[in-house]
């Protein structure tokens, strides 16, 4: 649980709250030409990926291994899964 205190306010009070969006910065922003979602992206070789369902397990890892993956930030469990998947694929060859 968070130590954050929640407070109720009315809709009229909420509408008076100033947002933190820098609208001047948004107004002058330009499109990034390297955006892979633009029309120039070649979708011809794209493939639909499906992954097996995941199952929650408890596993004991050496502290240094766990710290290595945690140091890379959010998604470290997904990266551990990817390393294990690569190992399994190599053993199945």
Unreliable runs: none
Radius of gyration, in Å, reads 23 Å
- Our measurement of the CA-to-CA distance between the termini, rounded to an integer number of angstroms, reads 46 Å
- Sheet with most strands: none
Shape: extended
Query: What average pLDDT do the residues reach?
Result: 84
Number of strands: 0
User: Could you state the order of secondary-structure elements as H and E?
Assistant: HHHH
Describe this structure as you would to a colleague.
By secondary structure, this protein is an all-alpha fold. It is 40% helix and 0% strand. It has four helices and no strands. The protein has helices at residues 11-16, 23-28, 63-71, 76-91. It is extended and about 60 Å long. It starts with 10 loop residues before the first helix and ends with a helix.
List the helices and strands and how they pair.
Layout: H1 11-16, H2 23-28, H3 63-71, H4 76-91
Short précis:
It contains four helices and no strands.
Top keywords for this entry?
extended, 93 residues, 4 helices, single chain, mainly alpha
